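Z., the sequence and structure:
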Amino acid sequence: MYKTLRGLVCAAVLCFSYSAQAQNIGNAPYSRYGLGEYNYNTGNIRNAGMANTGVGAANVFQINTANPALLYYNGITAFELGLSSQLKTLKNTNQSQTDGTANLASVSLAIPISSQRWTAALSLRPYSDVSYDVISRNRVSENVTFTQEYKGEGGISELYFGHGFRITKGLTIGASASYLFGNITKESITSVLDGSFSDSTAFTNEQVAYSEKTQYNGLLFKAGANYRGKITDKLYFGAGAVYSLKTDIDADRDAAYERRTTFGSVLQDSLYASSATGIATIPTSFTAGISLDNGSNFTVAADYHAQQWSNFRNFDNKQELVDNYRASLGAEYTPNANSVGNYFERITYRGGLYYGTTPVEVNGEQIKDRGVTFGATLPIGRSTMYDLYLLNTSFGYGIRGTTDNGLVQENYFQFNIGVSINSRWFIKRRIE
């Protein structure tokens, strides 16, 4: 009964967690392009604390979905739930503003099918996020100002199903299939402010808005491999790689023009309405990583990610992105996992650095992204041979973009928190 209850709880979380992903209240101007801001952390909070490294760094107690080949190392059933938040300051040469976000980071379940050969995992996480509100004002004459507002919200979610297999000692391979789904809504609102008829605050009371809602769904496939071998008696080397195949996802779009008041009330809807179907092409990507660890309490890892976003095509078959890369370096250390008298020695501490480019290029300049991360895993309660409970945290500070060439710079602070539960579900106990 106890095992059945836990299974039902995990299944319920996986089914209903998608509704928690739409809690975005932020402003991310560069998410206007492509399918939105791409989620680089395809692993977990452990990976986030190490600057999202981990393609070549296995872990027994954390579900590492960044490389399906590493799922093999989850020798007992593991469940993870994580939440993510971000505080962001946007600025250009003239002004600044602060916004925030709150999202589900991921929810994952890994189950060993064969304790010696095969582990499968199911995970739900954001693939991309769209959340922007940008206003452009141009003075037509002394009294007339033309205003254009661009708004977007929504994103793509990823339901991940991966498998990791042991081929021989030290060598594992893996594969995953992900179902991508979600809606992205974009609006372009045009209005004219005219102060020539009365006082300087007078304006026309109508706007023309173009709105489009696009629904996406499709499959994304990845393949991975990893090798971990001993260099010395106390040092191991790991190397891993993940390749994501090119895929076309289906897209259904409804679009319409509306007349609105300046307060947002609709005066006349469906001035022109249309529906169409199409596809969006997600290009191939490649990630490679290496690691060194002592098999006990210390790991250092480095990853390099590249994706050919110049091959991306949107719903209108237009190419609007450029190739990008991301390099990251991370490490973790546990002073003494078996310490009895000092709790802080049982905490795992992490840190990392990353630098790279985004797929977005504006005004001839490709947007760069760099930052620093740190984090910790705290044991919860008393561990037994059957159960291990962990509280995971990660923090990060980064800078995306620049204020040069009329662009926007984002200074952001990220915070992730979640739990990991490792449990031997399929062992018959003498005493419950």
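The radius of gyration is 24 Å. The first helix runs from residue 2 to 16.

Let me know what you think.
H.
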